[in-house]
Write a structure and sequence with these properties.
The structure is a homodimer. The first copy, chain A, is an alpha+beta fold. Chain A is built from 5 helices and 11 strands, in the order E-H-E-E-E-H-E-E-E-H-H-E-E-E-E-H. In chain A, strands 1, 2, 3, 4, 5, 6, 7, 8, 9 and 10 form a 10-stranded antiparallel sheet that branches. In chain A, strand 3 and strand 4 form a beta hairpin. Chain A starts with 19 loop residues before the first strand and ends in an 8-residue tail after the last helix. Chains A and B meet through strand 2, strand 3, strand 5, strand 6 and helix 3 of A and strand 2, strand 3, strand 5, strand 6 and helix 3 of B.
């Protein structure tokens, strides 16, 4: 079913290797559920980590931003980046402090991001980025004009070197701790959307569209 | 009220400077509300970005992990790191694609993380890290023993060079777009906890403690 991906020395999960998920399909499910990534890049030896939105098309990740932003100004040179997506699923409360943990799913992609210069690919990347965050919104918005496209830099990172890490389920305590007299279990966590809030300048007769009403990211377990 | 922090050339918010919040108090409110950070570090020119929990004590951030993990193995040498905390508050749906945005609060801390070697500070850092995630849990858990403490590396990052960035409120459209016939507004987002789930190996008579029942991170707007 899923393509097996041979981890490189850099992406091999060093600790707790049983949590490593190298299959592309599993990693893409995580990437498709999330929509905020943390991009790492290096400027004169100093790492920077910046949150931003992303989209995926096949085996490529796309991020975008102002052509003048520090992050994309540097990525533009084709420097090494790390894009990490983390979905937090719960607090894991073990009997021992040491075995406390979190349930999560995360993907780390390493590589070199390059600027998308082709106008068609750039517009398509912006469309899928929008579609990824809120399906249906792109078609109902005022489309980007030439000036706006010029101000927007889109970067592509091929998903070649990557790893996924998943922890799910109840706490795992040391055998002798199971009799320790404390509650143990999981407090589930999920990113949950609230009811849409009208822009104060919106004509109040404007109905909230179905895609915004129905918006939900994940059901709580 | 709040100490004014002079941004360095590296942490000055380059774009959209009106979103920059340099006051320590504001940054600490964000750090205290979140509990997952993304740590960036560099190995042979390649940036890595790894999610992990953190705690704050005064003007220091603490992270912890296995003494054998790749991340902390490298931090141990005292290399440069970037710790970023991002709280996502909503999708901002403007009339134009270009003005779509997100409501968020984020803090970026740059510096050099060092291993905490003092036994008392190390234990206290672990306690506040636990306390930060779930107040009340530390005292009800089996405390760390010598062997576990040896296996745990705690790193301290002084909060000296930092910046916060905040975007809140409705979309800001170009004036001529306000008549564009589409819905506009905000879909709030928040990390929401579900009902605690018992460990299957827990004695079902064990009551869920008040601190777990009452656990909540943030109210949706």
């Amino acid at each position: 079913m899923s393509e097996t991906h041979a981890p490189t020395a850099r992406t091999r999960v060093v600790r707790e290797a049983h949590r490593g998920v190298y299959e592309r399909t599993a990693a893409y499910e995580i990437l498709d559920e999330g929509f905020i990534c943390h991009v790492g890049f290096v400027v004169e030896g100093q790492p920077f980590v910046i949150p931003t939105a992303y989209g995926r098309s096949g085996d490529n990740l796309y991020i975008h931003g102002s052509a003048a932003s520090r992050m994309l100004r540097n990525l533009d040179k084709g420097v090494a980046v790390c894009i990490t997506v983390t979905l937090l699923d719960g607090l894991v409360l073990a009997r021992s402090i040491f075995n406390h943990s979190m349930n999560y799913r995360s993907v780390v992609v390493l590589g070199t991001a390059v600027a998308v210069l082709d106008a068609k690919e750039k517009l398509e990347a912006l469309r899928l980025l929008s579609q990824h965050i809120l399906p249906g919104r792109w078609a109902e918005s005022r489309q980007p004009n030439e000036k706006e496209l010029k101000q927007t830099l889109v970067m592509r990172l091929p998903i070649e070197e990557f790893s996924a890490k998943v922890r799910q389920g109840p706490p795992i305590d040391d055998e002798e701790d199971y009799s320790f007299p404390t509650w143990a279990g999981v407090i589930p966590l999920a990113m949950v959307p609230g009811a849409p809030i009208n822009d104060p300048r919106l004509d109040p007769k404007t109905p909230v569209p179905a895609y915004a009403q129905a918006y939900s990211r994940k059901k709580l377990g």
